Amino acid sequence: MTDSIRIVGLNKLFSSPDGGTVAAVKDVNLEIGAGKLVTLLGPSGCGKTTLLRMIAGFEEPSSGDIFFGKKRMNEEPPNTRDTAMVFQSYAVFPHLDVFENVAFGLRLRKLPKAEIEERVNRVLEQTGLSGYARRSPNQLSGGQQQRVALARCIVMEPKVLLFDEPLSNLDAKLREQMRVEIRELQQRVGITSIYVTHDQVEAMSISDEIVVMNAGVVEQLGTPHEIYARPASRFVADFIGKANFVPVKILSGDAVDINGVRIGVREMPDLEAGTTVTAVVRPEAIHLAGDKGDFRGTVRRVMFLGNIAEYLVEIEGLGNWLVDSPNPAEAGLFATGDTVFLTPSPSSIHLLR
Ligand SMILES: Nc1ncnc2c1ncn2[C@@H]1O[C@H](COP(=O)(O)OP(=O)(O)OP(=O)(O)O)[C@@H](O)[C@H]1O
Predict the structure, then answer these.
(1) 170 lies in the same domain as 317
(2) Mean pLDDT within 289-314
(3) Any coiled-coil ranges, and where (predicted)?
(4) Rounded to whole angstroms, how far apart are CA atoms 25 and 101?
(5) What residues flank ligand 1, with Cβ below 6 Å?
(6) Which of these three, 185, 211, 237, is where a domain ends?
(7) Beta-carbon contacts of residue 302 (< 8 Å; ≥ 6 apart)
(8) Mutation pick for ligand 1 pocket among 49, 163, 167, 200 (CB with most ligand atoms within 8 Å)
(9) Structural domain boundaries enclosing 79
(10) Of 229-243, 266-280, 296-310, minimum mean pLDDT range
(11) Closest atom, ligand 1, to C-alpha of 16
């Protein structure tokens, strides 16, 4: 049976070479439901690996508690926590074939031969490796080797699966394919999983929930949609996707003033009229036209990316805005120097407190 995970007031201090201390993880509180896949996402050094290693038992917390289900795990050594970790290096045994790689942990546990055979074959089937059972790892592609590493974890039927940037050694196309596979497999086997990455698209595509971390602190926990549409901070808005940050004045009646133009907003936080706050306006939520719109600007840069055109538009009094226009092959492109008109969609303006 898989377990839920609860993390309460978790801290990790390391001593630094200059004699001081580094707070790698600061007062982290998290609840991860049984069977969910939650991603720890953040820039290099934000503490995600340290948090994962504390959950696995490789690192001891300075303070705080880790529970699997109702059981406190702090004093539990890694080998009895019933977790399995998929690393970025494939960690397969080169001298054993695929079947024996997957069977390895079960043989150590001295399970009956017939049970080993049955479990290994089932997992090879689940990971699409049935046809490769007798191949040696050096006859496999990087993606297939990573599948062997994953199969070796799943066959042990751990309570918790941990992924430490498992796809970072693969090329872009294969990474995309593997993240779909990992997600489908995780949902099929239903093991509570924690996945570490610094790749926001990867996090968005595989997670039930994302934990955005910055300098040891959890900035926001939410579904991919919540984090994108309602970022809790400027850091989150900037880290997940692209964003324009626009100073706005709150008006009465669910509207804001942007540079003298009244724009309706979908969600108005509890703020007094007259207050100035920062709004997040996503580039794809701005309509660009040649004749009319809310703001007049001048195209300063054009990038044709196939599915979208990405523009940098200078608006008088508001600075440069990023604007993504869909289907440019059909719609045609504006050129550098063109005068354009921008209309942000009211439903996509998110106000930061
Ligand atoms: N053993 C250690 N001793 C001292 N400082 C450490 C140790 N391990 C990590 N740190 C520091 O703790 C902070 C968090 O590191 P951590 O490896 O958890 O970050 P990360 O988000 O996983 O980064 P990356 O994506 O680069 O792996 C960093 O400032 C790092 O330098």
Answers:
(1) no
(2) 95
(3) none
(4) 35
(5) 14, 22, 24, 42, 44-50, 198
(6) 237
(7) 309, 310, 311, 333, 334, 335, 336
(8) 49
(9) 5-237
(10) 266-280
(11) 4
Kindly give, in sequence order, each residue whose CB lies less than 8 Å from that of residue 125, ignoring residues fewer than 6 positions away. none
Residue nearest to atom 5 of ligand 1 (CA): 14
Q: How many CB atoms lie within 10 A of CB 180?
A: 11
Q: Which atom of ligand 1 is nearest to the CA of 59?
A: 1
- Checking 104-108 for CB contacts under 8 A at 24+ apart, the result is 104/152, 105/152, 105/155, 105/156, 106/155, 106/156
How many whole angstroms from 22 Cα to the centroid of ligand 1? 9
Report the percent of the chain where pLDDT is more than 90.
Answer: 74
Residues contacting 303, CB < 8 A, separation 6+: 309, 310, 311
Q: Are 268 and 335 part of one and the same domain?
A: yes
Domain count for the chain: 2
CATH of residue 15's domain is 3.40.50.300
Nearest to 198 by CA among 26, 350, 46: 46
Nearest CA to ligand 1 atom 14: 47
Tell me: do 85 and 99 sit in the same domain: yes
Q: What is the CA angle 118-123-128, rounded to 5?
A: 130
Does pLDDT of 29 surpass 80?
Answer: yes
Q: Is the ipTM of this complex over 0.90?
A: yes
pTM (predicted TM-score): 0.90
Give, in order, the Cα–Cα distances in Å from 60 to each of 38, 45, 50, 152.
21, 18, 10, 26
Task: Give the nearest ligand 1 atom to 12 CA.
Answer: 12
Confidence at residue 332, expressed as pLDDT on a 0 to 100 scale: 82
324: closest CA among 266, 282, 291?
282
β-partners of residue 304 are: 309
Last residue of a domain, one of 237, 266, 294: 237
Q: How high is the mean pLDDT of the chain?
A: 92
CA distance 303 to 312: 9
Distance CA(219)–CA(222), nearest Å, equals 10
